[in-house]
């Protein structure tokens, strides 16, 4: 997160627009991988902010690998999120309006491994038994996914 950290040195905690990507990672049992985040002690999706020159798909691939140890072989674009629901204030005071592209990944390899600077734990959850205390921006994404799943009858 070099770009955002450098920007923060100049502007402090004032609100910024932060562009990034997140990934809904599913195993063969259709369980969703979630990470217990260190920064806000909530459960969330793998993802993070864009570095200069990256594409959104590159962000998703990089963050997925860094935070979970898994390498995506294929990502499917799910949705793009922005707006008032994506205002977030981190526990240390930084304020952001997030613009995030969400991808779905079911084709990956690797062994689950937590990034010790960002992740306390990684677990797969059944969609009807998600953990409490989900990171606010991820709640919106998961809710949208569940809504589309229900529309499709699945």
H-E string? HEEEEHEEEEH
β-strand number: 8
Low-confidence stretches: none
Q: What is the helix content? A: 25-40%
The CATH fourth-level homologous superfamily? Nucleoside Triphosphate Pyrophosphohydrolase
Instruction: Determine the CATH topology.
Output: Nucleoside Triphosphate Pyrophosphohydrolase
What does this entry look like structurally?
This protein is an alpha+beta fold and 154 residues long. It has one domain (2-151): Nucleoside Triphosphate Pyrophosphohydrolase. The chain is 25% helix and 39% strand. The protein is built from three helices and eight strands. The protein has helices at 2-11, 56-68, 136-151; strands at residues 16-25, 32-37, 43-44, 46-49, 70-81, 87-89, 95-110, 119-125. Strands 1, 4, 5, 6 and 7 form a five-stranded mixed sheet that branches. A hairpin with a 5-residue loop joins strand 2 (32-37) and strand 3 (43-44). The radius of gyration is 15 Å and the shape is globular.
List the helices and strands and how they pair.
Blueprint: H1 2-11, E1 16-25, E2 32-37, E3 43-44, E4 46-49, H2 56-68, E5 70-81, E6 87-89, E7 95-110, E8 119-125, H3 136-151
Parallel strand pairs: 1-7
Antiparallel strand pairs: 1-4, 2-3, 2-8, 5-7, 6-7
List keywords for this structure.
Nucleoside Triphosphate Pyrophosphohydrolase, 154 residues, 8 strands, alpha+beta, 39% strand
What would a concise description of this structure say?
The protein has helices at 2-11, 56-68, 136-151; strands at 16-25, 32-37, 43-44, 46-49, 70-81, 87-89, 95-110, 119-125.
